[in-house]
Every structure is written in structure tokens, then in C-alpha cells.
Amino acid sequence: MRRATTSSNTNKVFKFIPNKFHALKYGCKMSSQLNGITTKLRDLIEEKNILGLNNTVERLIRPTRGFEETSLVDVSKIIGREGDKGALLRILLGSESYDQNVSVVSIVGLGGIGKSTLAQLLYNDKEINNHFEAMSWVCVSDEFDVFKISMAFFKDVGGGDKKFKTLNQLQVALAEKLSKKRFLLVLDDVWNENHQEWERLQRPFTVGAHGSKVLVTTRKTTVAAAMDSVQPYYLKLLSNEEALSLFAQHAFDEQNFDDVNRKLKLHGEFFLMLGDKMDVYDRIEPLEKCHHLSFIREQYGTYKKFKALKISRRLRTFLVMSVRGISSWETFYISNKVLVEVLPQLKFLRVLNLADYKITHVPESIGCLKHLRYLNLSNTRITCLPEQVGDLHNLQSLLLSRCYELSSLPASIVKLTNMRHLDNSNTLVSNKMSLGLGRLTSLQTLSQVVIGEADEFKITDLKGLVHLQGRLSIKKLQNVKNALQAKEAKLQHKKGICDLELEWSYAFDDSRKKATEYEVLEGLRPFEKVRSLKILYYGGREFPSWVGDSSYICLTQLTLRGCKSCKCLPTLGHLPSLQKLFVERMDGLKKLGSKLLGLSNSYHGDAFPSLEVLKFEDMTSWEEWTISCGNIVKVFPCLREISMINCGKLDVVVINSIPSL
């Protein structure tokens, strides 16, 4: 009987073990085929999933969610978390005084780390059930639907199956159920970062008794902040012993890893994640056959902890992770000996992530990593890159975002013909960009280009970069000589660019030619599906007709800043999807009239039909704003926020009623 059980458990293990174990069972031929498939899939995964390049694109792709969790839990299968449960019990049951009756407690941690399980333990705890008069569990996941969440809460607190046509009716009824009751609401797997949505949801909560709590589980600190959470509770990784016990339980139906046959060898294709101690590799032997390595950034920096990697000759992925969110200014220590002595030994490395470390320079030995495809140096303190970067002929992604001290790129970068993604956003790469960068015709991401003179990057170098997508910022446009050069950039044919920034120098001197800058801007007309457009420090007297053209049906945000020579704004009222309009530092503008709306006998629609936010700032010469359109059309029908900051001379404001305000 015992033998049969062991056989069953062995089959369980085979389901989770990579192809090298299957090779032992099915023979060399099958192993070869599976290895070939695995290699191809791994290449695709490294490019698509590990890179995380969607950070530079406005449209975010969220990670795949797990199954919807309920409040039920099998306590007998929970390992660890006793300390976490105790700490959170004290918070939830505490009698601390807050200004409001309801306080929000958030559990923040990596996906799969056990946030929902911990919340389930708390929800089913006897002390919790005795303390709170009303309780509800809602799995939120992808869509933060205020109506659905409120309805689920209403049913759980005794509201039954009553139907409501409006959110107001529902929340009034919910408030009646919660009145003077101490309640606990668990919102599991929350992704919403919109504070206004949270404000809408919590309106009925204020009538609850003092000590009511909302418990939130989320992967993101920004979610906790948006929900006005008290100090987030960061859930740490399980200890090595707890993790092994959890593995033993799921794989072998054993509660203790010591009961499992330790002769089981785990070879090759595992993605090894290091916990609190580097000696964890002793449990997964041999380390030299490990291909993919991940470790917690906050816990690794000294040479001693990385020294063991010298024997890992086959390592392909060197990926740092973080238990909590990283602020844009926060960096961590790593020994220079790791960069100089350890990394050059990893000859087969394909993915190298050193983001958020206090690195001041990249060693020349980086050129030895011939197989490298992904290099992330974001938010480091490097001032330059060595010319040896040009020897990385297989490099496809180079991420330099938030390297605030990086002032230039090496000339050898033009040799990286396989490059697809170059993120140099928020850097000082403005002194010089390499001539010939336009030869990197496979580029899909190029966050920022700086137009130079003579042997530097030219606007015409953009011509061959037909695959660009996402965000593109073009700086120092005063160096473009004529409209012909601007048109050669062929922005109108770059269908993948959704966020475009066009910037001239903020210094307005005698070298600026107003007529030329008008022609240049006219030649830089983007593709009609652009979603966000910024025109900064433009020196022309007026804007070309394409700015505000109704054909830009996807444009949702427009910023006009520092265009000091313009005495009027373009006609923008026809833009059908424009939601946010920012006008700043337009020193030449004195009067603003109905021309902005674009009303005429041939146009019968609403003016600014989708505009929600309108902001004027630092308009030091602006004196009058008059809009008269009669009663035929609606003006700003969706406007919910309007602000005028530092507009000291504005004395006359005549606007017909705005329906939404």
C-alpha cells in the first residue's frame, strides 16, 4: 500500500519537473525534441514577458490574474504566516483613534506570496467574527466596478436580492444597513489606482461605527495610497523551511520536507529564486546547471553573497526583483567586485537586470557577454557607457530610463543592428546623440531623440525607423533647418506612436526664425491615431491647421507650453475625444475668444464634446476670455475641472453656462 502511494506521488512530481527529467523517462530522442521546443519558447518569453517594455507605453497590459478567491480556507494546509496574522489582528482589532470611523488596512506583496490566504485566515478568525457586527468578502480583480462591489457588500450585510437602478439608490440602502455598525469589508486583489473611484465606493461607509475596517490585498503600493490606507503591511517571502514544507505538501502530501526523499535531483531548467540566504542553492543542486536566477534586490549587494555564482557557467538570466514598490529616487548598494569579477564569468548570460542599484560606471568587460539580449540599467548613477557595449551584437533591449546623470551614448551603439528597444527617457542624453542611430531600423522603442548639428543625430535619421511605437520625444527642434527635413522624418507614417512630444529650446533669442519653425511644425504632422501630444517652446506666431484637426479622433490629451510668440490658440473644439487640455506660459496670448471653439455654419456638433479637464497656468499676459455661442450648441458638456493658476492680468471672463459644472 505504501509503495502504491509513493508511485502516485512520483507521478505528481513528474508533472512539475522540466523536460530533462522527462528525458530520463522517454529517451534521448524525445528529450532532443522537447529541448528544441523549450529553447524556442524561452526565447519568446524572454522577449515578451521578462522585458516589461510596456512601461514606456501609455496603454498598460496588466499581469494575468489567478482564479477568483473566496473567503473559505482550509486552515490545516496553511504553512507559516502566524506572525503576520498576529500583527494584522492587532491592527484590525485595535482601538486606535482615527479622524474617521473607517480605516483602510492594506496587505501588499508579490503575486502568489499569500496575500489572499492571509486575508482568508483573518476573515475566518473567531476574534474577528466576534468583534465585527457585519462582514463582507469581495474579490475585485480586473474591474473596480463601484456598483458591483457595493451590491456584493449590500447582499452580505443582509440586503437580500433587492434590485437597484442607480448607484445612489444602492448606496443609500447600503448606508442604512451599515449605520452605527462596526463592519469589516475585505477587497481582495485590487488593482485600481484611481482615488476618485475609491471615494465613490466609500461614501456609505462613513455611517459605520468607529473601528470599522476595510482590508485590501494588492500587489501595488500605489493602490494602497489611492485608497487612503494606513501604513501598508508588506508581506515578506516565506522562510526556506516554510517554502520547502509548502512544496512537500503540494507535491507529496507530506507536511514536512524531511519526510521526502532528498535524493531527488533538480537539474537545469528551473528559475531559481534566492530567499534570505545565498546558501539556498545547496538545496537545489547543482547550482552550475541553473539557467535562470532571480533574487531580492534589497537583500543582495555584497560580493560575498554573489561569489558562489562564479560556478554557474550556464546562467542565462540575472534578474533582480523587489518585495515592495521602488520609489523613483531609491537605489541600492551592489559591490563593484560583482560587476568586475562575477558578471564577466557568466558568458552565456542573455538577461541582465541591474536596475535601481548605485552603479556609477559599467565595466568594459560588459563586452564579453556576447549572448546578452536584454540589459536594464534603469535608475542607476552611470554617467556614460563604455564603447564595448557595441560588441553586444545580439542585444535587443537597452533600458536606461531615469539614469539622470547619463549625458551621452557611445558611438559604437550604431553597431547594434538587432536593437529593438532603447529606452533613454528621463536622462541627460542631450549633449550628443550618435550619428547613424537611424541605421538601427529594427527599433520599436526609442523614447527620446535630440536633434543636433553637423555630425550629430538629425531629424532625417527618423525616416528609416518605421517600426517605432509607444512614446517618442523629439528635442531641440530649433536645429531643424527647413520643412523638407521635417517631412523626411515621416511622422505621419509612423502608425505605432501614440504619445508624441515636440520640443524646441526654451531660450528665445535672435537665432529663432518664426516662419521656419511654423514650417517645421507643419512638416511634423503625426499619424492620426496619436493619443497624447505635447508642443513645447514652439516659436512660430501661429499653429498649423493640423493642430486641432477633427481627424485626430484618438487624441485625448494636448499640452501647449511655452509657445511665447503665439498670439492665439488653434481651433481645438472639434477634437472629438480630447479629455485634457493644458495651456501654459503662452506669454503672447492676451485675448481668448470663440475661435478656440471652432464654431461655424458648417459645424453643428458640440464644442469640446469630451473635455473633462481644462488648465491654464502662468499666462502672465492673458487679460480676457470671452466665449459666446448662443443656445445652438453645447460648450464643454463634460467639463468637470477647470483651473487658472498665476493668471494675474485676467480681468474679463464671459462664458455661457457650462452644463457639467
From TrEMBL:
One GO BP: defense response
NB-ARC domain sequence ranges: 99-254
Keywords, sorted A to Z: Leucine-rich repeat, Plant defense
InterPro entries (UniProt xref): LRR_dom_sf, LRR_R13L1-DRL21, NB-ARC, P-loop_NTPase
Domain R13L1/DRL21-like LRR repeat region: 459-586
Pfam families named in the record: LRR_R13L1-DRL21 (PF25019), NB-ARC (PF00931)
Alphabetical list of PANTHER family matching this protein: NB-ARC DOMAIN DISEASE RESISTANCE PROTEIN, PLANT BROAD-SPECTRUM MILDEW RESISTANCE PROTEIN RPW8
Identification of the protein by name: Uncharacterized protein
Biological source species: Mikania micrantha
